[in-house]
Amino acid sequence: MRSISVVRFTFLITAGVLFASLAVTYFVGRETISRSTEISLREASIRQVEEVFSTLQDTEIGQRGFLLTGREEYLAPYNDARQDLPARLRHLQNAAMRGEVSAAPVKRLEQLSNEKLAELAQSIERARKDGSQAAMAIVLSDTGLKKMDGIRAVFGQILDEEEAQLASTEETLRKLVGVRTWVFVIAALVNLAFLVWAYRRIRREMTRRYVADLESQRQKETFAVSLASIGDAVILADTDARIIFMNEVAEGLTGWSLAQAKGRLCSEVFRIINESSRVPVESPVDRVLRTGKIVGLANHTLLIRKDGSEVPIDDSGAPIREQDGTVRGVVLVFRDFSEHKNSERELREVSDRLEVANKAKDNFMAALSHELRTPLTPVLGTLSNWESSTMLPEPFAADVRMLSRNVRLEVRLIDDLLDLTRISRGHIELHKERVDVHALIAAVVEIFRADADARQVRIGLRVVASRHFVDGDPARLQQVFWNILGNALKHTPVGGRIEIVTANDGDDLRITFADNGRGMSAETLKHLFHPFERASDGPGYHRGGLGIGLTISQNLAQAHGGEIEARSEGPDLGATFVVRVPVLADSSAAPTGKPGEVQAGVSGHALSILLVEDHHDSAMVIGRIVRNMGHAVVVSHNMTDALVELREQKFDLVLSDIGLPDGTGIELLEKTRTFSKVPMIALTGYGMDDDLVKYRQTGFLHQLTKPIRFEQLEKLLRDFAASHGQSAK
């Protein structure tokens, strides 16, 4: 390496000297040419000055000859000179503009020349009118003599300046020629010294190379033994892509012996194709030689052996380089990929089976949702109707409220199952708005107030956080608090207590739920947020439920940028759940309305509604409740009857179940659109996200998931009547 550095340094120094000499020679040569050109221009300027002076003399000679003889032919030199003088003066002015002559003397010369010409012209005109004697009086005055003396002085000044500049330029030119000569001499000496040094270096390098070749041969023999001993197949090729070596593994995989393959093109022995398309693949050896880089095969590559059989392989090719970077050949390493391909195929089959099972699970969940929701619709509708009645005796009304709570609990469990599916897919949707968490917690406490009173469990609420507004989905946040408080109430004994406290912790709102109930073991805490896991906290005690509520709550909290933390000192020592969510910067401001509050819509008129529902109990209850809202309802139990009704009379709105005996609600909408644009709302027991998206895309105005929440249906009908009803009538 030191030897290479010395050579590189010496070469760079020599190259630098040569470059410098060339640069100096170039600039000196350019300056020499410039000075030679300047000399020529100044000599030309001197000639122009002399020609102007000579021309002025000719005018004076012609004038004197005419005055002495009175003959016009003696004016020929005067006339010729007067005609040539302007052009000669312009040449001299141009030279002054280019900087070849001083501008001030040239301007003075032009002025004096014009005055001299005027004086000569005056004397000639006087001679023609009054005779030679009258003109001689002008000549004998000293005016003409002074003008001519002034002209001679200016001419002398210009000539002196030009000759001085010419002498200076000639001196500079002589120096430049001397510099160029010395540069040539120095460059020649440096080149000669470099050639002598290079000759000596080459002699030493040749000796070193001879020794290195002997060592290289020994290393090649060692390298060949190493390649023959490794477990992967190895092929060496030269720069012409011809095989020079193969180890035994390569012979076994290709079916070619080294004796048969040596000297052949690698593409003849190492024939590869794409497993899927059967198209030949470019040899890695050719790619390495073309690019000079390490390359590897894409997946699904087959090696065609000599006997025509096929072997899946994995390989890579790399250039073999000398120390100076020169590519001397290619090494190709490959291996039998059959076992890996079999493993891949088995994994793919397992993945396909899992995909089928997952799809079956989704279909089962959708069907389960439909089958569980549909019969709950008439039950919940009837109970809701009874709850709003003031005619029931109190004991019966209490039973109705109990039944309604339990039906809503069943609906909540169904929603939890669907939420878990959404979480596993990452499809949780949040409809965020400005939410007052204190109001949400108060609403949840009121929901559980009756159960807490029945179990004699005191729920303490201390909302002391000064900032309690968050950017969140009120329904989802209420679901989080509902799950945690419901879980605490379930595991708190009779006469126990639950404390709910809010506080600000930096930029977070911290909501703490603490109870003195059953508590949890360390093992339970470890798996608390895992779905479907219900750990035992002691003999004879197991946690009930499906084990998914807290899993859903944790995911919902995280979707809001927060988290849930659970703590317990152990069984029978109570439990504490802490929910953290980021607060809004201005969360201490007054709220704009109660969270989750449905604003009353504008009152509308009675609507004409077609209800399409194959579940007779549901149809009866929905129809009765909608009629109680003040609307006219016609009921059909299948798609065929619904189409007949739609053709025979005009409706403002259609409420259609999705699952019908002779088709689907989607098919009903598509058939209706061929003759009517009546708006349609879907009633469905299929609550999966994909189903709801499909209904919206199909063209339904809205969709209600069973069991129908009739307060939601009432709002939809009220809003529809206000915005569409007048035009529908």
Q: Nutshell version of this structure?
A:
With 729 residues, this protein is of the alpha+beta class.
CATH hierarchy, class of the largest domain = Mainly Alpha
The radius of gyration computed from the alpha-carbon positions, rounded to a whole number of angstroms, is: 54 Å
Quaternary state, please? single chain
Q: What is the terminal separation in angstroms?
A: 97 Å
Report the helical percentage: 55-70%
The count of domains is 4
Question: Total helix count?
Answer: 22
Give the helix/strand class: alpha+beta
**Contiguous runs where pLDDT drops below 50 for at least 5 residues:** 538-546, 589-603, 725-729
Number of strands: 21
Beta-strand residue fraction: 15-25%
- CATH architectural arrangement of the largest domain: Up-down Bundle
Categorize the overall geometry: elongated
Tell me the CATH topology of the largest domain. Four Helix Bundle (Hemerythrin (Met), subunit A)
Report the biggest beta sheet as strand number plus sense, adding barrel if it closes.
Answer: 7 strands, antiparallel
Can you walk through the features of this model?
With 729 residues, the chain is an alpha+beta fold. The protein has four domains: 2-197, Four Helix Bundle (Hemerythrin (Met), subunit A), CATH 1.20.120; 231-336, Beta-Lactamase (2-Layer Sandwich), CATH 3.30.450; 428-582, 2-Layer Sandwich (Heat Shock Protein 90); 608-728, Response regulator (Rossmann fold, 3-Layer(aba) Sandwich). The chain has 22 helices and 21 strands. The strands form five sheets. Strands 1, 2, 3, 4, 5, 6 and 7 form a seven-stranded antiparallel beta sheet that branches. Strands 9-11-12-14-13 form a five-stranded mixed beta sheet. The chain has a five-stranded parallel beta sheet with strand order 16-15-17-20-21, sandwiched between helices. Strand 18 and strand 19 (663-664) form a beta hairpin. Helix 1 packs antiparallel against helix 2, helix 2 (76-97) packs antiparallel against helix 3 and helix 10 packs across helix 17.
